[in-house]
Specification:
Number of domains of chain A: 2
Oligomer: homohexamer
Pfam family, one (chains A, B, C, D, E, F): HD
Distance between the termini of chain A: 32 Å
Protein name (chains A, B, C, D, E, F): HD domain-containing protein
GO molecular function (chains A, B, C, D, E, F): hydrolase activity; nucleic acid binding
Keywords (chains A, B, C, D, E, F): Hydrolase
Order of helices and strands of chain A: EEEHEEHHHHHHHHHHEE
Shape of chain A: elongated
Structural class of chain A: alpha+beta
Mean pLDDT of chain A: 93
Organism (chains A, B, C, D, E, F): Brevibacillus nitrificans
Strand content of chain A: 15-25%
Radius of gyration of chain A: 22 Å
Number of strands of chain A: 7
């Protein structure tokens, strides 16, 4: 199967795509057209559909799947599609979602197994119980196997959050022997739970928007509330030192309050300070890796995550 | 009864005080002395106790009450006490704590009544239930009638937090008719609950320190957790719009995240934005009022809350 | 009468509008067209006039009134007009300016009366004299009954500044009993005079631009100069404490100098500090109220004044 | 005559000094002592007066002149005086103020002449008239020949402001040929008038404090008000372009508003932008020159104006 | 010869231009077109070439010279060219580069002579030797006679850097007598060498881009490395005080590190501090001069270098 | 052997210490005394020497070694020494420097071996040659085995820099497998060379001050100059991509320029970005580890590196 990013100018594309955005316009000849953003797991492309009928206009839905017959053209230096034919996909088309959105390169089951192994190895029975309870929650379980770690910046693809968690766990495991002043179990628990609030801050794994609670509360405090909810359910005292420490690490993982990056409190333990930097490393490395991969042979490429151009190296 | 602040240089002081801090030293003649900070409701004063015996040194405890016989002297332009005799107070002395620490000028029962009346007048049954449950909690009830609103900056005296809440409620009530875009009940609920976390962020109402949970979680998130805990107990859904709104107002009441003043999220409703400014007004007016009152006849006085001098204005 | 904002896609519009901006272009067929921004009191809309003759092109003037016959179309998701016929309005058309620009919902005479009543109630004869002199100035009088409080952010409509002043006076009156450390008369005088410089910082009430003196001096200092000019005229000593206090409140009403928001000096009295927050409240509440009203049924809407999205509440 | 800074440890000092500050204390033997800061034109030194009588304590006044008989000692690495005898100076002592406070190295008449010559050479009759009127004012005239340019930072000595003005005029004259986009007369007028408000922001030239109007209005706006007052007196229209330009340069001479350094408006002409940098250069060069001169042979010295150490540079 | 900026709407243009950028597109009739940015020494203009053949599309190269036959039209309020005929220039066309790009108004030889004279007048034999060696380097010599001082902000034209250097030398020479605390020779050497790294930070003088070393190292450190390289070659000790001072001035010339403007170290000598402000003055005056010259008769014009509008003065 | 930190109040101390600072004073009885800061590897303590003779005063030198006979007293809550007898140490005393200053807990030879092994394993022959040449330099070799990584903040003890380097190499080695977008050899080379300039920025390993070149150039650029000097010596082209990359990582290791933390350029490669965070982690973990170790049993301790209190964990 050939993906959108692989087609060259002039080629014909026949296949299924996801509709990411839709905008109607009126051409100078008074006929209507649609500007669509279509995507599959290789990325997104703009598409033009001229002389659109009212029926088709209504039938094409954002976050829906369509089948297209189109040609690749160049417009202002970028590839775009000009669509000849389009129709919504039906269930009989048996399109797999995983072919339509970008997805983590690591299989979800492999990630999940690594996560489970870490949880099994926790020495703190309290932290272990909290995390097991979280992962056993049907909704959390389901979302954690699907959600990205963010809308744009890093690990922004199917089960990207799980990949980010496992990557952090691996980094934490490797650095822990160097820094005995860090609390191993709290660090692991923070890797797993720091972004758990994102499962409710974002709407869905396909074309995620921010939810109303997500915008009003934010994923840091949402994560802390999930932890506290579980503690209440399991009769774990909220004043337990390890629980306090985990909640502190979640609340401070965006760095110092004074920087205005969104922490509710500044990190005040070696564990919280270390985690903030690990999270920065893992998210920035992922974002820069994507930026350079997308840039093909270019020596320099613009990296949104740093708001400047980055260098391939040589 | 005459308070510490009223004694003049050269006068003799005999009476009860609270020990706020204690520091031992060795004089050039090798004898030991104590530097004490003593206080009553009129404020604090430094005191010197020369040639202190080990027994007395041990018997005098920080946050404890002592009876002194001392003389007021001037040292580097400030009054200080030189103590001739000192002993810890015993229960038979029947000293009232309220004579020993600064206290709100408004009687606690009057404040509490006003608070209750506002709660009774809430139209939202959900917000009313949450606040009634909070105020019915024995610990919250007790602390709210005693705690200051802060260690240093504003309403930093016995039941100062309650005075701050009632003052905010009054201000809110008066401005609401001007701004119909504001949610009345959520605004009232925020006035009452925004600093409720301080009852656990601070150690006690006499000589408050920050607690460990207070430093790790902060009173904004602590307040949100109290609200959520009550919702769970009362089976109020956490996704209820009014509950979300109240929690949002608590989390955002320190202003915009980008300013780095400690909000976990920036205010995103008219109610949240209004409350932030009301809280600024009430705390700054209280602090500046104290600064100018303490400055006596001085035209200008240094106001710590603004980090600059303020003008009496006449 | 039906306003621009009320027309739906496909409807025909015949009526008078104000020309807010005009831009000429050349179409691919080499004929000229105009892009116009047309407005009435319900807001603005973009309009296209194809094949425009040189005569019409010249006759249509920015800030002028035109009569149009046009159709509503959708372009890139927004409504726009395609104009079939257009001509400048003549005096015989008897168009009322108030139907053409957004206007305060409160009648100007009602606002003026409230303002006068406050002035009459001032106990300070000096402040009363200054303000009476200002309001008696023909130019100030005329402009204050017409000017908006700003170009874009808040109260940006006909006699919006007067509405803002009266709203501030009401808020001040309601909060004053809570804060006796505030100087009542100076606070009222600041409400009235704080933005008086805007009457000269802006060019006109219809389509206001910044004037050259406005950009070079700014409305804070311009306001202070108006006060000082009146004092000289009335032989009020410039060193009078109330005059100094009023000028201080005007100069500091954008908040602390260190924040870089344009105050010439940081607020150094309770009155100045309170007024800054009242002004923030009144301008932000007005702006957020407009944002949410314009957003119709949308749960979230982008508020330029906060540079983020705001929530309707429920 | 030998100045305070020239005495070495162990030497006896007999002579006149200015009392800059006074603080009373009680020694361990219960006798009173005074800590004085004494100064002459060479600088300041701390002095101790043991066993002070109430009469002497009252007779010694801050900003007064005293005659002392004292010995230089070293205390914590710094020289201090131990006073054996002290009395207030009487008029019969005929002490010249200029021997008692630091003074500009350039004679005041030489500076004044240079200033007058520049004013005479102005081509703009309006700017010339404004400045002549200002310099003809008896109070401004008198103060300008005495006041420092600041309390601490730069040109902080007798007629330091006049020296700063003349130094700026010289620098401006020399750079003008390079930058024809700058308005010569406005630049000269700004050099002369930019800090004219300091003559009222500061209390006196001997031991200057900030005045109440100085703290409430600030010297930028005070300078603009002086200019406007003169214009009114001379019937010069306030809207005159050169007057606007001069006022703009005064209001913007602390740099960009966003930096929070106290400008009321950001510089918006080449002249205003150039003047800001010239003022920075002249004040910083003066301050660094003093820092290095005071540091004697030290390779590095702490410069308060930069908040870091500076290098002599040899 | 008539330059691009001089042509009016409707006129025909026949002549040579430099291709600054090129972008291909597909028109609604499916034919290809080119959007070109064409320039000569009077500035740049957008140009449209419809129905372009593949041969022409390939033959037109960015940074190449073309001969065009075109018409000036107005598009969205700006002039643009519609090209009828176009071909690449051949060597037989004998086009002079200096007619094609903006160029300093001062002849290069005049600038060079002034530079040489300053170098000859240096009293420091070490600084003189370093600069002579630099200017004798064939590559530096060649580039310094061609490179702009920057891509966009100031002196952004042919041999603009040399003009900037000579202008700084003149300003330095004129201010030096006022500030004896400044090291004359180090100041002159800094004027000459402060931006020498730009000769390698930028790719070429015609259409400069940032080079890879330029982006990775920056012109400040590149300049220091050039100085150190010459010292090693000439056996000048790297610890020489004048060399250290020169390098310090280069590294600190973007102002204080804390401001985040790119200095590697904050200025710590009077010379370094003075140079920073001189550089600011010379670059800002040049940029504002250009802004106002380009603005023709407009009273206000947007100045990118200040990110705000500037005023012509009157 | 017993170290200073181990003595209790009242105990007698006889032994050798390092003199860290010295300050003379005059007591109220007119006799001279010395305030000394004395230290050994366990830390520092203030000491008082009353009635000091001029001979002893001169004989005691900062950074010199003395033998003392003293008693531990408590002064303002801190231990201090009162010295009965003191003399400078002579060579016959055979005091080992390592007993007198704090020292890394890891033996220097073990660290050196690990460093050598990493260098031997570099695949890049160019980077390997540069580092081998650096380590073979007698001065660098000697200093690297002795110098701290800083004066105060982290690894501030004997061969602390070497410990920091080896710790970074270990962390880098462990994280590299996770981030293939990072250049292994450049990362290792940066770990080794990033602070190499500190060997010249600081004066000596015993009581390090900042050198004049250190303050003028800073250790980032000094490090880059060392690399470039070696390249010139070894005929490695300065434009080599790996050399550029190493220099970029050194220059950017203090984070983004905009933050004002001292980088000469912002990190623009995955390797540079990763290294910045690794350096933050290693320095902060070391500093927090020391803070908590020094705090003994205290739950909370003030950490200078974070400018706030940190929590032990539980």
């Amino acid at each position: 199967m050939k993906y959108l990013a692989e087609y060259l100018e002039g080629e014909r594309v026949v296949g299924f795509c996801l509709v990411k955005s839709k905008e109607a316009g009126v051409a100078s000849n008074q006929s209507e057209y649609l500007n669509l953003e279509l995507g599959d797991r290789s990325g997104s492309i703009m598409a033009k559909l001229w002389d659109v009928s009212p029926e088709i206009k209504d039938a094409i839905a954002v976050k829906g799947i369509v089948k297209i017959d189109a040609t690749v053209q160049s417009y202002r230096g970028k590839k775009q599609l000009v669509i000849q034919r389009i129709r919504p996909a039906s269930t009989s088309d048996e399109v797999e979602m995983e072919s339509l959105i970008p997805i983590s390169p690591v299989p979800v089951d492999e990630l999940w197994e690594k996560l489970q192994k870490t949880v099994d190895g926790l020495q703190s029975k309290i932290l272990q119980a909290i995390i097991r309870e979280a992962l056993a929650d049907e909704e959390i379980h389901g979302r954690l196997r699907q959600f990205p770690a963010g809308v744009r910046m890093h690990h922004n693809y199917y089960h990207g959050l799980l990949e980010h968690i496992v990557s952090l766990l691996t980094a934490a495991e490797r650095l822990l022997p160097l820094y005995p002043q860090v609390d191993r179990d709290v660090l692991y628990a923070t890797c797993i739970m720091h972004d758990i609030g994102k499962l409710y801050e974002l709407s869905d794994p396909i074309a995620p928007d921010y939810t109303t609670p997500g915008q009003l509360i934010g994923h840091l405090v949402m994560g802390v509330e999930i932890v506290s909810g579980i503690c209440r359910k399991l009769d774990i005292p909220l004043g337990d030192a390890e629980v306090l420490h985990l909640k502190h690490c979640i609340l401070s993982h965006h760095g110092e309050v004074e920087n205005g990056w969104g922490s509710a409190v500044s990190g005040k333990t070696p564990t919280a300070v270390l985690f903030h930097y690990l999270d920065q490393i893992d998210s920035k490395m992922n974002a820069l890796g994507q930026t350079l991969a997308d840039a093909g042979e270019e020596e320099w490429a613009y990296a949104g995550v740093l708001r400047r151009k980055v260098w391939r190296g040589y």
